[in-house]
Amino acid sequence: MNKRTLKITTGAMIVAIFGVLLLFNRQMGGLLEGSFTYLFPIPMVAYAARYGGRSSLTVFVCMVFTAFLTSTLTSMFYAISAAFVGMIFGAMMFRKMDPTKTLLVVMFLCVLSNLLNLVLLAGISGYNLDAEVREMQEGMRLAMQKANVALPDAMLSTDFLRRLFLVSIALGGAFQGFLIYEISLLILRRMRIPVQKPKAVSQYYPPKWSGLVAFIAFMGYSYAFAKPGMDPLTQGVLETVGMLGYFYLIVFGVIALSLVIRCYVSGKRGVVLLLSILGMFLMPQGVMILALFYISGGLHPYLLTKLEEMQQHG
Fold it and tell me: Fewest CB within a 10 Å sphere: which of 132, 147, 155, 224?
């Protein structure tokens, strides 16, 4: 079988499997919708990584028509967004782009997909975000009452919980993108498709300005939280941006803490993992300060240089 025929038949097989899964999902009442975001990107990743973005675009268009004919509106959007993520991911692999940039693009697309899915769900199926937030609010109040713990009113306000809910969806999308990236690379290697070796997370150098911006955003969040009587729009923006800055600093703070532990305490993975998790929960403010020095200061290159020296002498 020549290459052109193999490319066409492989694409047709992917579209056929896509359609069968959509039909099965419809007959089972949406059983597979939760798996779409993890299941459907992988075939498209494999196809686009082998044949490139232009060839995979035709397959993607066929998938869109198949989804339109065989699934409900909500299922269609879940499936199409997952296939689109896979196509972009595979095309970037085909062009041998930087693995770190590829990972960030995949995570961003998954975050965007999750937020758009929420908007579509609210518009089509009658999903009420405010009702979900009110249920969360009541549950937290009951839990705090049983535990005899008093939380500030601002933490139980509807606006604050709504923003927290949206941020959690965005973070869930980022984690989903990370899983899709790692699982797809594993499968591509099994299929003997050449892929670039991913960098260790500690090798990624974030922009130095991002650490300062994230820290200022968190300080804005603290200010807005301490002054609940300010303008609602301003308070909402400060709290949302501040929560994102907080999570950004926590992520890189944990990475920095793990490197510090490897340099000065122990190189055993179990010890590093345990102490990093404990530090994140017991000293979040300290982890944030460590992240600031790690991103915007000279701590990152210093720790990497020390690790290289230890490996050379070890």
Answer: 147
Phi and psi angles of residue 47, each rounded to the nearest 5 degrees, phi first:
-70, -50
Phi, psi of 205 (to 5 degrees): -105, 100
pLDDT tens per residue, range 25-83: 787 776 767 676 777 788 888 888 888 888 888 899 998 888 888 877 777 888 888 88
What is the residue-wise DSSP string for the chain?
A: --HHHHHHHHHHHHHHHHHHHHHHHHHTTSTTHHHHHHHSHHHHHHHHHHH-HHHHHHHHHHHHHHHHHHS-HHHHHHHHHHHHHHHHHHHHHHTT--HHHHHHHHHHHHHHHHHHHHHHHHHHS---HHHHHHHHHHHHHHHHHHTT----GGGGSHHHHHHHHHHHHHHHHHHHHHHHHHHHHHHHHHTT---PPPPPGGG----HHHHHHHHHHHHHHHHHHH-TTS-HHHHHHHHHHHHHHHHHHHHHHHHHHHHHHHHHT---HHHHHHHHHHHHHH-HHHHHHHHHHHHHSSHHHHHHHHHHHHHHH-
Output the pTM of the full model.
0.70
Tell me if 233 sits within 8 A of 209, measured CB to CB: no
Taking the C-alpha atoms of residue 139 and residue 128, their distance in angstroms, rounded to an integer, is: 17
**Burial class for 307, CB neighbours closer than 10 Å (0-12, 13-18, 19+):** middle
137-174 residue pLDDT tens: 777 777 767 767 666 666 666 666 666 676 777 777 88
- Distance from C-alpha of 7 to C-alpha of 232, rounded to nearest angstrom: 55
CB-CB contact of 4 with 46 (8 Å): no
